[in-house]
Amino acid sequence: MSRRQFLTGAASLAAFAPFTRLLAQPRFENDPFALGVASGYPAPEGVVLWTRLAPEPLTAGGGMPRAAVEVAWEVATDEAFRNIVRRGKEAAGPRWAHSVHAEVAGLEPARHYFYRFHAGGAVSPTGRTRTAPAAGAAPERLRFAFASCQQYEQGYYAAYRHLAGEDLDLVVHLGDYIYESSWGRRHVRKHGTEEPITLEEYRNRHALYKTDLNLQSAHAAFPWLVTWDDHEVDNDYAADRSQDRDPPAVFLMRRAAAYQAYYEHMPLPKRMQPRGPDMRIHTRADFGALARFHVLDDRQYRSQQVCPRPGRGGGNVVPAEECPDLQAPGRTMLGAAQEQWLHDGLAGTGARWNVIAQQTLMARVDRAPGEGRSFWTDGWDGYPKARERLLKFVAENRVANPVVIGGDVHMFVVADLKTDFDDPGSPVVATEIVGTSITSQALSQKSLEAWRADNPHIKFADSTRRGYTSVELSAGSCVMRLRTVDDVTDPASGARTLATYTIEDGRPGAQREG
């Protein structure tokens, strides 16, 4: 083992060291709530509340003692906290980086609440959250936004400032919340440290991103659902295989550190606590009878990418005729168990809209203009039989209004999803909307335009803008607004709507407005 590999293992083991003291009234030299507050996973009767005590967030241990600290929380119907309806206490210890995941119950469905935390005389910022509608209820609307890919060095988070100002019920984050690597052009700020490998290094990388006040404001404004992609661990990793072809046992130690740090910094329920390198994050979330979200994990269980570059792992653009393994029927993006879980959730849904929240572009994209075909193997194009199984299941079971949302590729894409992309007459079985990145740089628009004629099912593609997507679901339609910032290098940038698309109830395929 190298020194860094040893440190990875040592850091993972050290995280399990027990604490022996509980500090009810600690003293802080700095604000222990420097990373803000968040809520997530709303249910009709409750929600998860999150914070992490870190008075020195970018130092080892966040500036906290190796002891547990008592953290009180309270939930009120008003911002002044005159009517507190629930309160409780948590022990935030070093095992989980002094993070708090308070699972509040006994709330009323479909209403807003305010929350805050107390520790050692310090009071956190106030957050606002909202519970889900009651099971079977038929709300008039559901408004949510989804976002992804926020490389810290490549831009400011002005997009989150505008997102926080919208009238939303929910935010869905689709991965690449942090980046382990430094890349790209014209950086506006720096990570300031090398690529994380140990638990402490991943904690500090998450903390750096969390210090951004616009990101904090978006967390404090709405409850979130989250899933990860590759950069939360390592670019293009697949299950236990890294891009750099590290020994799987060594890479799993790194994955364990990354998964733990991710859990420690997200408003996740305690049932999602990782166990070493394993962490179940895929889940369902219902919003009455109007919508069901199927939140997927396409990293932890996938088959290794085929036909990689010599001496490397991860994705590659390959001519289809030179890579017959692409069509191997047993290859999976989700793993057999999660694939079956998704089928069960789609078959058993009674929701009017079924939102499949996953990481990347699902529509087929032939990247070789003219004769021949080439595909990017890290996305769904690297797992065509798995995509075919899913879309055939959707079609054969007549799943109500399936809408696939994704990120990863740093561009807006609106596409028709079909069971047979080779047949122009094949019916559209689902609609896909891929959001652009919050900050991460993209392929050129010129490259996209070169592919357009070979991919007629793609109705819109734009890689020139950064931003997010807002969605309004109602009984009759799904309206999607592609929101962009004017200048990602300006923290005070304005924002605008690039395009608006509508899906009508019972008619897959998005139509552009205006």
Map the helices and strands:
Elements: H1 3-14, E1 22-23, E2 37-43, E3 46-52, E4 68-76, E5 84-92, E6 99-104, E7 112-119, E8 122-123, E9 127-130, E10 142-147, H2 158-164, E11 170-173, H3 199-210, H4 213-221, E12 223-226, H5 248-264, E13 283-287, E14 291-295, E15 317-319, H6 336-347, E16 353-357, E17 374-376, H7 384-396, E18 402-406, E19 412-418, E20 428-434, H8 445-451, E21 458-462, E22 467-473, E23 477-485, E24 495-504, E25 507-512
Parallel strand pairs: 1-4, 2-12, 10-11, 11-12, 14-16, 16-18, 18-20
Antiparallel strand pairs: 2-3, 3-6, 4-5, 4-7, 7-8, 7-9, 10-22, 13-14, 15-17, 19-20, 19-21, 22-23, 23-24, 24-25
Structural commentary:
- The protein is α/β, with parallel strands linked by helices and 514 residues long.
- The chain has eight helices and 25 strands.
- The chain has helices at residues 3-14, 158-164, 199-210, 213-221, 248-264, 336-347, 384-396, 445-451, and strands spanning 22-23, 37-43, 46-52, 68-76, 84-92, 99-104, 112-119, 122-123, 127-130, 142-147, 170-173, 223-226, 283-287, 291-295, 317-319, 353-357, 374-376, 402-406, 412-418, 428-434, 458-462, 467-473, 477-485, 495-504, 507-512.
- The strands form four sheets. Strands 6-3-2-12-11-10-22-23-24-25 form a ten-stranded mixed sheet. A seven-stranded mixed sheet has the order 13-14-16-18-20-19-21, with helices on one face. Strands 1, 4, 5, 7, 8 and 9 form a six-stranded mixed sheet that branches.
